[in-house]
Design brief:
This protein is an alpha+beta fold. The chain has six helices and ten strands. The longest helix has 13 residues.
Length: 181
């Protein structure tokens, strides 16, 4: 038998979660901007670049800092690495997995534990930005480190962007990505 107080806490937790669904911001790059490329992701930078560090290891990645933005890390990883395979364990594509997390009552095994691990709660918003087959899911709020997951339809590969960013910085960053991945 379920403990009523546990069920009440779970109901309150889900009712307080904030989700948003937005269109992709308009592409905003100047002709003379610098292009940062990682695999098939192209990010234009109009501001002065403080530094770019290429990360070694089994997953392509880089850390960079441009004026007006916090330090950001971008890695190209499998969903098995970024999400510990939770999408495949639930027989979902990566995009379907995040869309299911956005639903009021996600049909995902251990949904509450997964949301806690990803930092999705009443103080951290899960937002979707969509452009054609490309979707970005951002988790921002009071987390110390915020995350953007960029993925294409039916792909198990994704770009994981991390840093101390807010929602307006997510929009600014996405406006610098040419949606051609």
């Amino acid at each position: 038998m379920f403990n009523l107080s546990k069920l009440t806490c779970i109901a309150i937790l889900f009712s307080n979660m904030v989700y948003a669904d937005n269109s992709w911001p308009k592409y905003s790059c100047k002709k003379d901007s610098t292009n940062i490329a990682l695999v098939d992701l192209n990010l234009c930078v109009n501001e002065k670049i403080a530094y770019i560090n290429i990360l070694g290891g089994s997953h392509p990645g880089l850390v960079f800092k441009v004026n007006g933005m916090p330090e950001l890390s971008i890695s190209y990883v499998s969903s098995d690495f970024a999400l510990l395979g939770a999408d495949h364990k639930n027989n979902l594509s990566t995009q379907e997995f995040f869309l299911e997390l956005m639903s009021k009552a996600p049909a995902i095994d251990k949904a509450v534990a997964i949301k806690n691990a990803l930092g999705i709660d009443s103080e951290n918003t899960l937002t979707k930005f969509e452009y054609s087959e490309l979707i970005a899911f951002s988790i921002t709020g009071k987390n110390q480190i915020d995350t953007i997951y960029l993925t294409k339809k039916d792909s198990s590969q994704l770009y994981q962007v991390t840093g101390e960013i807010n929602e307006s910085q997510v929009v600014k960053l996405l406006s610098k990505i040419k949606p051609s991945i």
